[in-house]
Amino acid sequence: MQLDKRFWSGSGINKNKAMVENLQTYGVVRSKKVAEVMEKVDRALFVLDRNAPYYDSPMPIGYNATISAPHMHATCLQLLEDNLQPGMHALDVGSGALLTPSIVFLY
């Protein structure tokens, strides 16, 4: 999978659940658990542009910072699920928007 590829620009995606379903369709989200926790944390709560929160694109969040594209969050979460074993720890550095830690907390 090409990590810098954008999978859609938002056409018709207006709900968090639909965004996660697209990530599943494109094979970025492969597990039921990652899909479930991503559906519980609505990306719209973390972006400034309320008209396009589900675009697969980085978006400004203020203070000269951006939130990563949804496929990047999904890729990281899927990698954690695939590789993190009991007793191991993960450190998220630079999560200014706190979206990924919010999702991991629900895990």
Provide a descriptive summary of the structure in words:
It is a single chain. With 107 residues, this protein is mainly alpha-helical. It has one domain (16-106): Vaccinia Virus protein VP39 (Rossmann fold, 3-Layer(aba) Sandwich), CATH 3.40.50. The chain has 4 helices and 2 strands. It has helices spanning 16-25, 32-40, 70-83, 99-106; strands at 59-62, 65-67. Strands 1-2 form a two-stranded antiparallel ribbon. The radius of gyration is 13 Å and the shape is globular. The two termini are 24 Å apart. The mean pLDDT is 81.
| CATH C-level category | Alpha Beta
Mean pLDDT, to the nearest integer, reads: 81
How many E strands? 2
Estimate percent helicity. 25-40%
Radius of gyration: 13 Å
Q: Write the element-wise H/E pattern from the N-terminal end onward.
A: HHEEHH
Which features would summarize this protein structure in a list?
Rossmann fold; 4 helices; two-stranded antiparallel ribbon; mainly alpha; 107 residues; 2 strands
Give the helices and strands, then pairings.
Layout: H1 16-25, H2 32-40, E1 59-62, E2 65-67, H3 70-83, H4 99-106
Antiparallel strand pairs: 1-2
Brief overview:
This protein is mainly α. Helices cover 38% and strands 7% of the residues.
